[in-house]
Design a protein that fits this description.
Strand content: 15-25%
Order of helices and strands: EEEHEHHEHHHEHEHEEH
Pfam family, one: ABC_tran
Helix content: 25-40%
GO molecular function, one term: ATP binding
Domain ABC transporter: 7-234
Structural class: alpha/beta
Bound molecules: adenosine-5'-triphosphate
Organism: Coccomyxa viridis
Number of helices: 9
Number of strands: 9
Mean pLDDT: 83
Strand order of the largest sheet: 5-6-7-3-8-9
Keywords: ATP-binding, Nucleotide-binding
Largest sheet: 6 strands, mixed
């Protein structure tokens, strides 16, 4: 299918057993938007993201990509465009390169544009060799960034980010923020950090009520100064190498 431009959530309800966690959650996100998801620990932020990726069943409500439900679109197609990046270390066996390579065989991923994975890895401040190290040998912060890099390289229209900088130091977090801002994807982004929201701006969905608030676009004075070479937009840097890696994954780190 062509790349979707709008993700719409109508009256979503998510329960665990007979306990309703989220009720009447409605919002719309368009390509390029950033929507932060805020709320206290345990309120249901991760459950919301998993529901949006159709990884868990929803108890009521409707999810629509350009007016089509996951069933109408096909779940693999849905997850190709709405990709969940989990909070914790992936349980994948093997190496990130193997995962990225295997993903080329998913039907829903064939023929789609790709980002330049090595360029993304570099922009995240990682050495290329992490791509060939077993996942279990990566630190939490390395694994978190590599998983994000793979998801970014797959160019989904909608990224579901579950605390994507939780294991990172400040400089690494700033690099992640910059890449995500440069990416054309919409970001639905769980964070507990007010400063992060202030640096990036956008909108915020406050749980449990699901009310939306505008976020003042504050410029952080803490951002590390990066050299001009590091400041290039990797998403405009498609290289011949990328063609060799064409293909890829349904949900890179789906568990
Ligand atoms: N698989 C599960 N089985 C039972 N209860 C669950 C399951 N997953 C989540 N929950 C419960 O649902 C609620 C919401 O969990 P969720 O992980 O979405 O919270 P959260 O807002 O992301 O929290 P945090 O900010 O701490 O990551 C919690 O009370 C949690 O215990």
């Amino acid at each position: 299918m062509s790349e979707a431009s709008t993700l719409e959530v109508r009256d979503l309800k998510r329960a665990v057993g007979d306990r309703a966690i989220l009720t009447d959650i409605s919002f719309t996100v368009r390509r390029g938007d950033i929507l932060f998801v805020r709320g206290p620990s345990g309120v249901g932020k991760s459950l919301l993201l998993r529901a949006l990726a159709y990884l868990d069943p929803i108890q009521d409500g409707t999810l629509l990509l350009d007016g089509k439900t996951p069933e109408e679109l096909g779940v693999p197609q849905w997850r190709t465009q709405v990709t969940y990046v989990p909070q914790s270390r992936t349980q994948q066996k093997g190496t990130p390169s193997e995962l990225y390579f295997q993903a080329q065989h998913f039907k829903a991923q064939r023929g789609r544009p790709r980002g330049d994975l090595p360029a993304i890895i570099a922009a995240l401040g990682l050495e290329q060799r992490v791509l060939n190290q077993p996942w279990v040998e990566l630190s939490g912060g390395q694994a978190q960034r590599v998983a994000l890099a793979i998801c970014l390289a797959l160019k989904p229209g909608f990224l579901l980010l579950d605390e994507p900088t939780s294991a990172l130091d400040h400089e690494a977090a700033i690099r992640v923020e910059r890449l995500l801002r440069e990416s054309k994807a919409a970001c639905i982004w769980v964070t507990h950090e007010d400063a992060q929201v202030g640096r990036i701006g956008g909108r915020a969905l406050q749980l449990p009520l699901g009310t939306e608030i505008a976020v003042d676009h504050l410029v952080s004075t803490e951002s590390p100064q990066l050299g001009p070479d590091e400041d290039s937009n990797v998403f405009n840097n498609e290289t011949a190498k990328t063609a060799q890696r064409e293909g890829l994954i349904e949900v890179a780190v789906q568990q």
